[in-house]
Amino acid sequence: MDAVATPTPIAADAVWPAVRWAAARDLKLALRSRGELGVQLLFYVIVVSLFPLSTSPERNLLATMGPGVLWVAALLSSLLSLPRLFAGDHADGTLEQIALSPYPLGALVYGKILAHWLTTGLPVVVLAPLLGLQYAMDAESLAVLTVALLVGTPILSLLGAIGAALTLGLRASGSLLALLILPLYVPVLIFGAGAVDAARAGLGVSANLSLLGAGLLVAMVGAPFAAAAAVRIALD
Amino acid sequence: MSLNWFKYASPATFYPLAGKMIPWFAWAAALLAAAGLYLGLVVAPTDFQQGDAYRIIFIHVPAAWMSMFLYVVMAAWSALALGFNTRLSAMMAQAIAPTGAVMTFIALWTGAFWGRPTWGTYWAWDARMTSELILLFLYFGIIALRHAIDDPRRADRACGVLALTGVVNIPIIYFSVQWWNSLHQGSSVSLTRAPAMAAIMLTGMLIMSLAAWFYAIAASLARVRTIIVDRERGAAWVSELPEVRNA
Fold first, then answer.
1. pLDDT tens digits, A186-205
2. Which of A63, A85, A156, B130 is most buried, by the most CB atoms less than 10 A from its CB?
């Protein structure tokens, strides 16, 4: 009777174990190559510190540029870390085994994205206030910037996963990934930097942050499935 | 009488049908463009604010509309291709992409030439221009992804996923003028209120839009025919086509 009542035994109750398993596995892998994570963070710091050297160390200008520079650097460091998401597993055949497992591929991809954000997005969020100080940003702007990055960087990982899966195993996949993904990142950049600009101008930040939050919800619902579909396309 | 639409879902039956449709759409586009340009450049009066510079809207607005519309159409074909696994739908999506990119480019280029005398600048980082530029990058991304993948069936599905992901940007572009108070003026044409322009200008613009639409159909159909011949070159019916045999 039970078998008739539940024709697909792996459905809702298999989603969270799959997410947890994939996230834990990727976290463990990432923490075993800490050097790589450190290099990515250093890339973020270096990109941010190039701008005052190339433009002007004048404090007002820095405070104006700061939010945009920090956001662009976050975008670039996310882009740089995206190939790690699937490329290693694709090269050694693990991705094929993951796709063959009876668990829903969308949930497994979701776990991988979660681990990617925890290892590459979250450190960027944590470092941002410190780097913002170097840009002479005031306390309120720093707080808004951190919140905006906290809401916005998961969108980068979610959207980026689609591009990373689409470009698996292609020639010149790095620059192609940038061409595919950066246009999709632009709305996140506009709303994220816009929130900080609004705070500096003394306007309400809730509109920009709400739009970012809405974007995050849409990306959380849609992106894992699109990325899972892209993984299947790459594996054919 | 019931039409069997699925009959034309096969490249072999669609190829001759497309060949028959192309001259109709091409001639309609040419005649409408001639009529629209005559209305726009000769009959329509000079604008009291913008002088003759406004006449660029007869190219600019149709191109901008088509740039967004073609993306939606391309995404719809991609969705059909992904959902029903039909080869011809993916070929249509592939054929539309370059025309869409050209329309986007024309919209940006003519906008720059209109902006110089009217706003005093070729380019401003305003919401609508920026999002139209992003649309151009989306088209480029889809075309580049297509060229990076050797297997056409994999390319079909990968481009389909990308096109459907990017379709989120279309409402952002369309409503950007209302959401952000930008340099680019709001829409002068609306379904819900009387247009804020002279009837003759509006007529010219709508005729030009129809011309752009028919041109896009003719160009896409011509391109899809070359794609069909290229991809089905192993099939017997392709090698029996007179244009292939005599080539």
1. 889 888 988 888 888 888 88
2. A156
How confident is the model over B190-233, as pLDDT tens digits? 555 555 667 888 888 899 999 999 999 999 999 999 999 999 88
A–B: how many Cβ contacts below 8 A?
60
- Domain ranges in chain B are 29-41+54-185+195-233
Q: Express each pLDDT in B67-82 by its tens digit.
A: 999 999 999 999 999 9
Contact B166 A171 (CB under 8 A): no
Q: Give CA–CA dist A212/A227, Å, rounded.
A: 20
Residue A2 maps to a domain: no
Mean pLDDT of B102-125: 87
Q: What residues form DSSP beta bridges with B47?
A: B51
Q: Do A176 and B169 touch (CB under 8 A)?
A: no
| Pairwise CA distance, residues A168 & A177, whole Å | 9
Tell me which residue of A164, A165, A159, A225 sits closest to A187, measured CA to CA: A159
Asked if A169 and A136 count as a contact pair (C-beta separation under 8 A), the reply is no
Structural domain harbouring A123:
13-235
For residue A167, the chain B residues in CB contact (below 8 A) are 145, 148
The total domain count for chain A is: 1
Q: Among all residues of chain A, which has the CA nearest to that of B135?
A: A183
Query: Looking at the domain assignment, is residue A82 inside a domain?
Result: yes
- Within a domain: A179: yes
Query: Which residue type does B165 have?
Result: T
Q: How far is CA B182 from CA A40, A74, B59, B130, B151, in A?
A: 37, 27, 22, 11, 44
Nearest-CA distance from A202 to chain B in Å? 18
| Subunit contact B148:A172, Cβ cutoff 8 A | yes
Test B137 with A179 for CB contact under 8 angstroms: yes
- Are B164 and A226 inside 8 Å of each other by CB? yes
Within A82-205, residue ranges assigned H as helices are: 83-91, 94-100, 105-116, 122-134, 139-166, 173-200
Burial class (CB in 10 A: 0-12, 13-18, 19+), A87: middle
From A137's Cα to the closest Cα of chain B, the distance in A is: 24
Residue bearing tokens 């070929």? B91
Asked if this assembly's ipTM is beyond 0.90, the reply is no
In a domain, A102, yes or no: yes
Which chain A positions have a beta carbon within 8 Å of B173's beta carbon? Answer: none
Q: Which residues of A touch B131 (CB under 8 A)?
A: 186
Q: Are the Cβ atoms of A186 and B134 closer than 8 angstroms?
A: yes
